[in-house]
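User: Fold this one for me? It's DUF4382 domain-containing protein.
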Amino acid sequence: MTVRMVDAPGDYDEVNIDVQDIMIKSSDDTNDSEGWVSIVDDDFTPGIYNLLDLTGGVNVLLADELVPSGYLGQIRLVLGENNTLLKDGEVIDLDTPSAMQSGLKLMVNQTLEPGATYEFILDFDVAKSIVSAGGSGMYNLKPVIHVSATATSGVIKGAINPVLEGYQVEVSVPVGDAVITTFAGETGLFQLNGVPAGTYTVTLTPDVASGKTPITITDVVVENGEITNVGSVSFE
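Assistant: Here's what I get for DUF4382 domain-containing protein.
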């Protein structure tokens, strides 16, 4: 899954948010202190992002990680203390509730299919998230974030029956200028992951030593977030 952040603009010159971590929770357990897992890798550097740079189709990639398939309950955006806004040339500290440092919890409630790729967009509504503290000149950060999820690929699976014992079978599908490949397992099962939506031709190529002729399966339709099962395939 990938997590990206975008912004709905507000009436400021800059709104700088201190992002420290991205976490997910698979279960629907209401215990806030348990079940959370960070999905940022060693390449992730906590940092400050100006939300007003993230408009007009621009976004920032916060996480891009393999996660377990199944139910995904929540995403947690963990913020630090260095949140500011720039208004009329003045840098103003945003008063951030201490709860934000343990993480802003965003409800997802979605089932992730195995092998598919999902993109989660965190849309930060600046106009609603920055609250003026009366006439004091101070501003509070009370994040309002809308979460949307899009499956950006699907899966093709099937089985070779009977199995070509002792011989490998390569399974491939061309996707643009690239080719996605895998090998059938010992039980004959195969699965091609990360295939974008479209109509494809799948080729099963057995080891030359088997004496078998490759098989092509045409008009295989893939939908994002779905598993397309081509069923059982037999070599002559």
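One thing worth pointing out: The chain has two helices and 20 strands.
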